[in-house]
Amino acid sequence: MRGQQQKQGIRESATTTMATHQRRLAALLTIVLFVLTCVPVSKAKRTTQRTDEEFGPVVRAYLGYLRDEQEVVDDRVSRREISPVYYRHNSNRIKALRLMAVRMARETNNDYLPELEAVSGSELGLLFGPQAPAPASFKVGEVVRHTFRYLGVVRTGEVFYLFARLDPYEQAETTEKADSSKADPGRP
């Protein structure tokens, strides 16, 4: 009887020990999974914040706006309100705008960004109407139709043509220059 009690005591302690180990293992796995899922996000966030800190308040505000736009697109796709194709297209557009904004801010060392537009080849009509110019004819820095300055091409999964909308004074100036060159073709 005494041997049977000892065997039962050993089984109970082994069962208790096993249950304790299983709980500890489950807790450890939970912590490891939490750390693995949080670390890359926080690292990416820190990198973005560090990148944004090199700019002034206007550029940081624009980059924050683009982050917010991406969150909206992410939310809409998670609720299945938009198609995956539409999601990728808009995400690529946001990336293209961000790349151009950062490039412009770094090149000019100025805390100013014009209103930026990013369109794919099939969307040029949205900016220029049905008689949109051919993308091959664009030259970087060129003013197109007295309204937009062509900034270049950005490839983010697809090709986007980036433009800066001219402010009303710049538009008036380019229109005036075009009119004066038509009136006096001999003048440079």
Briefly note the structural class of the backbone.
alpha+beta
Most strands sheet: 4 strands, antiparallel
User: How big a fraction of the residues is strand?
Assistant: 5-15%
Number of strands: 4
Strand order of the largest sheet: 1-4-3-2
Count every helix, treating DSSP H or I runs of 4 or more residues as helices: 5
Radius of gyration: 30 Å
- Poorly predicted runs: 38-47
- Helix content estimate: 55-70%
Specify the overall morphology: elongated
Listing every helix as H and every strand as E from the N terminus to the C terminus, the arrangement reads HHHEHEEEH
Distance between the first and last residues' Cα:
116 Å
Mean pLDDT: 81
What does this structure look like?
The protein is of the alpha+beta class and 188 residues long. The chain has a domain at 114-188. The chain is built from five helices and four strands; from the N terminus they run αααβαβββα. Strands 1-4-3-2 form a four-stranded antiparallel β-sheet. α2 runs antiparallel to α3 (84-108). It starts with a helix and ends in a 5-residue tail after the last helix.
